[in-house]
Amino acid sequence: MNIFRDIEPQRKRGLLTLFAAGLLFWSSLASLLPTLPLYVQSVGGTKQQIGFVIGAFAIGLLLSRPQLGKIADSRGRKQVLLLGVSVAAVAPITYLFAKSIPLLLCIRAFHGISIAAFTTAYSALVTDLSPPGKRGELIGYMSLVTPIGLAFGPAIGGFVQAGLGYPFLFAMSAALATIGVFLTTKIAEPNFAELTKSDSLFEEKNRQKYWQMLWNPRVRIPALVLLLVGLVFGTLSTFMPLFIQETKVNLNPGLFYSTAAVASFGLRLLTGRASDKYGRGLFISAGLICYSVSMLLLYFANNSNAFLLAALFEGAAGGTVLPMMVTLMSDRCEPQERGRLFSLCIGGFDLGIALAGPILGFAAEQVGYRNMFGLAAAVSVLAFLIFVTLSSKSLSHSLQFAIGRGKDVYALVSIPVAPE
């Protein structure tokens, strides 16, 4: 990680503290992944109601992201970070008092604000601190907080729930995020006034309405692809524990998520730096293919080895597509618009998660979990086709960019292409 040698000490300390806060934040959220669907089931939730409750997480995401993106651009990233970890610290305790589906829906939507705030501000702040020529490498390293948190969180959450029960589980989740709040207060962000100094271009971009920015070609296709990816991810996070339970396979659901996280970790170590050399498109395409393979494996899965192999492909996909999309958007936007453009692009992912629960929950009621994952495979293939044909200004440019043989025409910083 030689890149950290080139960063001044104060920024390096800020990055390390931010990394630690991110680990705690994601561990807190991930500890509920294999357990919350079962908790909803224990209070009487049907398959579709479980989908609604877990999907309600994205309602908070969608409703709060626009304003949070504006705050991150106008007042700085740290305020939004603090809001994210604070909500993550409060929400788990409130689950203990929720014994009805409507109340669980409300709490889950409130909990969603945490990830909207944290991911928007985290991505923008890391980009602020990144050297442009090595942006992919640094974002790749800093994005490791997600797979590490997703590796430890589900395993710890499943163990605590099985051994000590739901009260201890929710208390642990809240405690992890509370430590994250303390660490976040210690982060010193760059001089924000300098990053967003007034000029005619800045004033013009500030006057542009938030939702109008979605139709900008820099944002439109990444947001659409992430919407489809969100549908796939939402299906996994909501229904995987129940699918494993239904198939009677002897596998702890937490182990599925941990295996995926290990694969995600390995890919993030490699792809960030490689994307600085070969461009982002090649790795996004490969990640979308991995999502398709993972869903197909789940469609045919009937033993623990098949589930774990699917987890490896899903982890490879998540460890490639999400950080590469963030890096792609960092290439395409200026400091004073990062919060808004990141929130718009990642908002597509949020919407996919929100729709996954009710839509695919309905599909699960009608055709079963297995066929639902077959449908998710088709969604993954559609995302791949959209990216390779529409990611640039023409079909030819899109194909070249998607296979690493052409530059991103929308990038503000030129990224090399693969050598012939």
Structural write-up:
With 420 residues, the chain is mostly helical. It has one domain (9-187, 210-402): Growth Hormone, Chain: A (Up-down Bundle), CATH 1.20.1250. 78% of the residues lie in helices and 0% in strands. The chain has 17 helices and no strands. It has helices at residues 9-30, 36-42, 47-55, 57-74, 77-95, 101-128, 135-142, 145-164, 166-184, 192-195, 200-207, 217-247, 253-278, 281-300, 304-332, 338-390, 395-402. Helix 1 packs antiparallel against helix 9 (166-184) and helix 7 (135-142) packs across helix 15 (304-332). The protein is globular. Residues 198-204 have low confidence and may be disordered.
Query: If helices are DSSP runs of H or I spanning 4 or more residues, what is the number of helices?
Result: 17
> How large, in whole angstroms, is the Cα Rg?
20 Å
CATH topology: Growth Hormone, Chain: A
Number of spatially distinct domains: 1
The main pleated sheet reads as: none
Flag low-confidence runs: 198-204
Architecture (CATH level 2) name: Up-down Bundle
Please give the alpha-carbon distance between the first and last residues. Answer: 28 Å
What is the helical fraction, as a range of percent? over 70%
**Class per helix and strand makeup:** mainly alpha
What pattern of helices and strands is seen along the backbone? Answer: HHHHHHHHHHHHHHHHH
Beta strand %: under 5%
Can you tell me the overall shape? globular
| Corresponding CATH superfamily | MFS general substrate transporter like domains
CATH top level?
Mainly Alpha
- The count of strands amounts to 0
Mean pLDDT: 81
